[in-house]
Specification:
This protein is of the alpha+beta class. It has a single domain (3-153), classed as Pleckstrin-homology domain (PH domain)/Phosphotyrosine-binding domain (PTB) (PH-domain like), CATH 2.30.29.30. It contains six helices and seven strands.
Length: 158
C-alpha cells in the first residue's frame, strides 16, 4: 500500500473518531481510490482535489468502471468518472465546483483525438459537451471502450 493511502487512512480514522459509520466511510473511500487506480490514475492525480472529493460524490452502491483526468476547456483540471450507474463530471476551481451527472441514456456519443502522447476526449450529451485534454493513454483507452460498450447497450429514447 502506498504512503499516500496509509496516511489517508490515518487521517480518516482521526476525522471519523467516535462516528459509528466511520469504518463504512473508510471502506467507501478505499473503494473509490482503488477504482481510480484501476482506471489508471497516478499517485499524483489521486492527490488532486477533484480526486479527493469523489468519495463524497460517488454513492456507496456504485462502482467506478473507468475515469479520465485532464484539463477542462476554460478552467483548470477536471475528472470524468464512469460508474456502473452514471457518468460524473467534476471540476473544482476556487469558489466554484461544477458537478454534472449524466445517465447513460443522455449520452449521444464520444469523440476523441490523440497526438501520440495524450488524448482529447469529448463526451457528447443532450445537455452539452464535456471535453478534457491531456488525458493519459491508458485512461483514455479504458474510458472510451467502457462508454462505447455501455452506450451500445442502452435503448434509444427519441
Amino acid at each position: 500500500m502506498s504512503d499516500y493511502i496509509v496516511n489517508l487512512i490515518k487521517r480518516l480514522k482521526i476525522y471519523f473518531k467516535g462516528d459509528e459509520d466511520s469504518e463504512d466511510k473508510i471502506k467507501h473511500e478505499m473503494c473509490v481510490i482503488e477504482g481510480l487506480r484501476d482506471a489508471g490514475f497516478s499517485a499524483c492525480q489521486l492527490r488532486h482535489l477533484e480526486s479527493r472529493r469523489l468519495p463524497e460524490i460517488v454513492e456507496k452502491d456504485e462502482h467506478i468502471k473507468a475515469a479520465i483526468y485532464g484539463k477542462a476547456e476554460l478552467r483548470g483540471k477536471a475528472v470524468i468518472v464512469a460508474t456502473d450507474k452514471r457518468v460524473i463530471y467534476f471540476d473544482h476551481t476556487p469558489f466554484l465546483d461544477t458537478l454534472d451527472e449524466f445517465n447513460y441514456n443522455v449520452i449521444s456519443g464520444i469523440s476523441y483525438s490523440t497526438n501520440g502522447f495524450s488524448w482529447s476526449i469529448t463526451v457528447r450529451t443532450r445537455s452539452g459537451n464535456r471535453t478534457l485534454e491531456g488525458v493519459k493513454n491508458n485512461q483514455a483507452d479504458k474510458f472510451i471502450n467502457y462508454i462505447e460498450s455501455v452506450s451500445i447497450d442502452q435503448p434509444l429514447n427519441i
